[in-house]
Amino acid sequence: MSGFRERDTWWAYAFLIPWIFGFIVFTAGPMVWGAVLSFTNYSVVAPSHSVGLANYRQIANDPYALLSLKNSFEMTAIYVPLEMGLALLFASMLARLTRFDGFFRTVFYLPVMTPTVAIGGMYLLMFNGPYGLVDQFLGIFHIPQPYWLTDPNWIKPGIAAMLVWQVGANTVLYLAAIKNVPQQLYESAAIDGASAWRRFKDVTLPMISPTLFFTFIILTVYGLQVFDQIYTAFYNPSNAKISSDTSLMYVIYLFQQAFEYLHMGFASAMAWLLFGIILVITGIQILVSKRFVYYEGEQTR
Question: CATH number, domain at 121?
Fold first, then answer.
């Protein structure tokens, strides 16, 4: 038995080797190298030397770095509640279906398969006011047609709406969580006279709160790092004329510094600052979650 377990252990290590290699070469290695570069003035085309904390001080004094960070926070603050709210609404609707539920789950999930670059192109088609499809639809009802691509008041909500196109992934997660809520809890609440809203608020939400908490963290991290869709819609060379300071997100500015201006040292410092910010935000979310997230297993021990 001991020899059998030892062989199983070695086989497990053998299957883990490709992942470990990929993690070291493509994740851990670049992170460590990026940390080293953040303390230099490395620019690819010229000799580099150590500059200490100068790159980090430059971030604090760079108005565009601060503006892009502010834009990323504001857009994420719009996107995360919108995504979670719509996903929860759609999941609640799907949970009530008794027929064709598999078909509708597939329909809701299909947009997740859309390439992110295609989503950016689709955004230009739908939100290019006043000629986009969304604006033309609003015009039918004589609703003011926003200039989503140029009006600073509408750029961030428009970007959030673009990102919500892939809401199906979280819809499926929430649907699975709702399906796992014990039915006897709903029956007990109904016997006590609880309305549908009270059953949702006092039974469904607490029971699926671990899933809500998980997606809250993931969406926050994603919102702060989103790049492809925004770059395609606003900063693609063919669309340079519609770029705006309001659409300048932190990762976009980081990309510009690294690959357009070749300020690799400064861009590495920006990347590590973003990593630190995400780490702090996630830590705060975990601490706050202890008051709002219900783990059934912990309560029964």
Answer: 1.10.3720.10
Rounded Cα gap, residues 101 and 104, in angstroms: 5
pLDDT for residue 173: 94
Q: What is the pTM of this model?
A: 0.88
Per-residue model confidence as pLDDT tens digits over 146-164? 888 888 899 999 999 999 9
Identify the burial level of 247 via C-beta atoms within 10 angstroms of its C-beta, where 0-12 means exposed, 13-18 middle and 19 or more buried. Answer: buried
Whether 26 is covered by a domain: the verdict is no
The parent domain of residue 127 ranges over: 57-300
